Amino acid sequence: MYSAAAWSVGTAHGVLGRGLLGTRWWGGPEVTEDSRWDLASVTKPVVGITVAALAERGLLSFDDPLAGHLPEYAGSAKATITVRRLLTHTSGLPGATPLWRKHSTREALLDAIRTGPLRSPPGTRVEYSSQGFILLGLLAEAAGRAPLDRLVAELVTGPAGLASTGFGPVHGAVATEDCPWRGHLVRGQVHDENAVVLGGVCGHAGLFAPLADLERLGQVLAGGATPLLKPGTHAEMTASHTDELNLRRGLAWQGLDVPGSPVGTAPAADSFGHTGFTGTSLWIEPRRGRYYVLLTNRVHPSREKPGIEAVRREFHDAAVRV
Q1: Helix/strand/coil (H, E, C) string of 221-270?
Q2: Cα(152)–Cα(167) distance, integer angstroms
Q3: I need a labelling partner for 248 at 20 to 30 A (CA). Which of 124, 269, 275, 278 fits?
Q4: CA distances from 71 to 76, 80, 123 (A)
């Protein structure tokens, strides 16, 4: 199904069990401690923490409208969508939209997001939308007056001690897909095609990290997210804001949906985390002070192979018993 995997289970105080297995690509060198993995949508909560840190500094509010930071949205149907709606995937923006197929430049793709229709009225349903996090990345840059990669480094990866986490391209990465669109095996360039068109530094995908950095982030989050956020901000981010809707969402975090959770139902009901399309995940059980990291390149050599859903569930079923 894929050539490589890495995993870790631990607490805020350290690692309980971990491992690395396989090769960076089929027939390639073995996975090592310094191998970096395309985190895909696990980028989203990192960008969410960045947005929350900007809010703590008074540079934005979770209830700010989109047009307040991105003036090009003034007068549009999206003008009053709030930061909170973007973070909870309740903005009404559509998900699963391969904009890269018709829009081959950054300017054209962003214009397609600006002018495209909403799928539903804001606040009426949860629809997982990378478009919303693309806008959050732009909004963070506007509010923080700095490029997104610098904000992530200054507000999240630096304070958390994630020394080898950052946006690509990177050397020593675990391969993802033999991509028909690009015509080659992708190694060290972001897998997500919309992110490629946008230049690789985006709010929805693009971060690469080794196992040790995901362990460190898991420990920080399991311990309450200091030194990243104040306790109240962390609590607001990880609480469910959508219990009355179709899916449980925090601010940039997934809650545990029963049924339907990608990690199964073994983790505690108040647990939270995020998964990534390339086969990655980070999940936290706050009351137990536990974290669970699973990294794979499940899109290698093709995204068409099924099975990651069962692997994720079985991993978490076993991990909670460690």
Answers
A1: HHCCCCCCCCHHHHHHHHCCCCCCCCCCECCCCEECCCCCCCCCCCCCCC
A2: 10
A3: 278
A4: 10, 11, 22
As a whole number of angstroms, the distance between CA 129 and CA 145 comes to: 25
Residue of 297, 247, 295, 249 whose CA lies nearest to 272: 249
**Could you report the per-residue pLDDT of 210-261, keeping only the tens digit for each?**
999 999 999 999 999 999 999 999 999 999 999 999 999 999 999 999 999 9
Q: What's the CATH number where 52 sits? A: 3.40.710.10
pLDDT of residue 4: 98
Residue 193: how many CB atoms within 10 A of its CB? Answer: 17
Q: Count of domains in the chain?
A: 1
Secondary structure element (H or E) that encloses residue 209, with its range: strand 207-209
Domain span at residue 154 reads 4-319
In tens, the pLDDT along 33-48 reads 999 999 999 999 999 9
Give, as one character, the DSSP assignment of residue 75: T
Residue 63: exposed, middle, or buried by beta-carbon count in 10 A (0-12, 13-18, 19+)? exposed
At residue 318, the pLDDT reads 98
Measured CA to CA, the distance from residue 310 to residue 296 in angstroms comes to: 13
- Contact assessment for residue 152 and residue 50, using Cβ atoms and an 8 Å cutoff: yes
pLDDT at 70: 98
Of residues 32, 29, 36, the one with CA closest to residue 176: 36
- 232 Cβ contact partners less than 8 Å away, ≥ 6 residues apart: none
* Two structure tokens written together for 128: 């997982």
Q: What is the pLDDT of residue 1?
A: 76
| Mean predicted confidence (pLDDT) in 82-92 | 98
Does this model's pTM top 0.85?
A: yes
Q: Which of 265, 284, 268 is nearest to 10 (CA)?
A: 284
Return the C-alpha torsion angle 266, 271, 272, 278, nearest 10: -20
pLDDT tens digits, one per residue of 285-309: 999 999 999 999 999 999 998 899 9
